[in-house]
Amino acid sequence: MQVRANHRYCKGCNLCVAVCPSRVFEEGKDISDRGYVPPRIAHPERCPNFKRRTRKNAVCEMCILTCPDQALTWNEEGGSE
Ligand code: SF4
Ligand code: SF4
Questions:
Q1: Count of domains in the chain?
Q2: Is the Cβ atom of 16 under 6 angstroms away from ligand 2?
Q3: Substitution site in 24, 40, 52 for ligand 1 pocket (most atoms within 8 Å of beta carbon)
Q4: Which domain holds residue 7?
Q5: Does the Cβ of 62 fall within 6 Å of ligand 1?
Q6: Residues with Cβ within 8 Å of residue 70, at least 6 apart in sequence
Q7: Whose CA is nearest to atom 8 of ligand 1?
Q8: If pLDDT is split at 50, 70 and 90, which confidence band does 76 have?
Q9: Which single residue of 21, 37, 60, 71 could bond 10 by disulfide (Cβ 3.0 to 4.6 Å)?
Q10: Which residues of 20-32 are buried (b: 16+ CB within 10 A; e: fewer)?
Q11: Helix (H) or strand (E) holding 15
């Protein structure tokens, strides 16, 4: 599974970029429909949960717990941002 950002909620605060110990996120460049600049999930394979299949086995959820806008979720299907 990998983390996914919902751009309908993200305000581009970049707290997830700062908190991730695995440097999964990078600051974004593109403006969302809401006028914010969401980060890019540039290296999802670096997340220690990347090869895990369900949230109950997650060993880190720092980004999801830190996001003030609940914009981050797990995509348990794999998929992309
Ligand atoms: S779960 Fe942890 S390692 Fe994975 S992207 Fe979020 S903060 Fe980074
Ligand atoms: S912490 Fe949440 S609101 Fe802030 S940039 Fe990351 S996904 Fe967007």
A1: 1
A2: yes
A3: 24
A4: 2-75
A5: yes
A6: 9
A7: 20
A8: confident
A9: 71
A10: bebebbeebeeeb
A11: helix 15-19
